[in-house]
Amino acid sequence: MAKFEHNFQQLFLTLTNLNQTQFQHAVTVNKQLAENTQHLGEMRRRLAEDTKNIAQIRESITELEALSEERSFNTDKAVQNVDRRIDEIKEKIKLSKIAISDFEDSQTEIILSINKIGSQISEISKLEEGDKEQLERLQKELAIDGGKIKTLETKIVEKKKAPKADIDIENRKSVVMKKSVTPTLKPGTPTQKSEDDDQKIRRNAGDIPKNDETSKTTSEKPKLTKISQAPQTEEKAVVSQKPASSKNEPENATVNATKKTFSHAPMEPREPLRIWNGQHYLVFLHIGKAGGTSFDSMMSKGLASINKKAQYIGGKHFDWSFIEERFPADDVLTLFRDPASRAISHFHFMQSLSWTKGMKIRDQTISTFLQDPESMMANRGAWQDGQAAVSWLTGTHVGTSWVAKGKHATKDKNEMEAESLQIEHILGLAADRVENMFWFGILEDIDRSLELLQHQLNVTLPVSY
Q1: Under a CB-based contact definition with an 8 Å cutoff, are residues 334 and 392 in contact?
Q2: Fewer CB within 10 Å: N-end or C-end of the chain?
């Protein structure tokens, strides 16, 4: 029994020691488990963040791939554009070579034409020298005939005062006039001169006094017909010189005899004035220094009053090449100014421009400017032919820095100046465009011009001139 108790105590002690060890171990395990759980939570949080970052990275990669594809497409397109541009440049170079070749051919033709013109001028000069000699001879003969006519006219006055006439004055005049036949002229020499030229020659020769009674009587009579005509015509001319006081002839006979007649037919009336339909654009061709700025302001205000301001195209300078390309079927207006007044105004305007600083024009008067060829050529935009109208109307204005032109119009000043020298073609083109214009005004007659414009527009304009 004692042994059993001793064994039981030993077993109890063993179990007790064992339970304490296990309890401590359990506590340690629980502590480690808590730490591991906390660490696991931290790992899960980091894993969530990494997952989110991976998603963002994937989105960025997708965007980069799309951008890369777009850039690749744009690069291909840019390469195609560059290739197309290179082809265009090659084509232009080819056309330029052809143009240069044509220009060289034209230059050769021009040189040949100049040489031909030079030889023609030389021939004309020789003919002019012969004509001058012939003209001098003719003037001398006319002076002699003028003296005879003066003598006859004096006798007519004397016979008119006498109660009885023993001599038939008209017959004597006819006989004398028959003798005054023009001498034979060289081939190609003009055979007629105007009546005014005959009178000037006679007056310069001293055959027609300026203030005596005879000259007064003569001035009331019709002028003699040209002496170079046939003698029969001369007789008729003399007969028509009867004094106005003759009983057989009315007082206004001499006046009727001097009435001027015209060879051309009377001008036909133009078509009725066009009235604006409110639909077409009103395109203002603004000629420099011709009152266009005030016109722009007036038109903008006037059309704004009827809600049509958007129909007005103005406010800047452009020539006909711009109109022809953008507004070919619309109504064109312009304002003209006396070319000399416009040129003087342009001269003073150029003196204030920034690009003339340091140039002679800044300190010149209009008189000194006109006597300085170098300064005139440096500033020829003020006075050059066409600046007052023709260059604007034909699309050949050379001021490409301040005058808008059509996209397809040439910008080469030499080409435009060469075209402007085709006088007959250019003037005809300008005249046609003025003829077909909706309205044009004259600055020196602005009141009547604007009255006409208001009638055509059916708008009251705030006139500011």
Answers
A1: yes
A2: N
C-alpha distances (whole Å) from 464 to each of 206, 276, 298, 305 are 57, 22, 7, 16
The predicted pLDDT at position 403 comes to 94
Cβ atoms < 10 Å from Cβ of 110: 12
CB 226 within 8 A of CB 195: yes
Please check whether residue 203 is in contact with residue 211, taking contact to mean a CB–CB distance below 8 angstroms: no
Q: Write the pLDDT tens digit of every residue in 400-419.
A: 889 999 998 888 888 888 88
What is the per-residue pLDDT across 201-260, written as a single tens digit (0 to 9) for each?
A: 444 444 444 444 434 343 343 333 333 333 333 333 333 333 333 334 333 333 333 333
Sign of CA dihedral 239, 243, 246, 250: positive
**What phi, psi does 97 have (nearest 5°)?**
-65, -40
Within 13 Å, how many C-alpha atoms sit on residue 407's CB side? 2
- The string of pLDDT tens digits covering residues 146-190 is 676 767 767 776 766 665 444 444 444 444 444 444 344 444 444
Pick the closest to residue 355 from 399, 410, 318, 414 (CA basis). 399
Residue 338 CB coordination number (10 Å): 14
Question: In this structure, how many other beta carbons lie within 10 angstroms of the beta carbon of residue 173?
Answer: 22
Q: Measured at the alpha carbon of residue 430, what is the angle toward residues 428 and 434, in degrees to the nearest 5?
A: 115
Q: Let me know: does 226 contact 192? Beta carbons within 8 Å.
A: yes
pLDDT of residue 108: 73
Which residues touch 309 (CB under 8 Å, ≥6 apart)?
A: 300, 303
Task: Specify the DSSP element, H or E, that contains 433.
Answer: helix 423-435
pTM: 0.45
What is the model's pLDDT at position 445?
95
Q: DSSP assignment of 304-355, as one string?
A: HTTT-GGGEE-SS-B-HHHHHHH-TTSEEEEEE--HHHHHHHHHHHHHTSGG
CA–CA separation, 160 and 17 (whole Å) = 186
Q: What is the chain's alpha carbon radius of gyration, rounded to the nearest angstrom?
A: 51
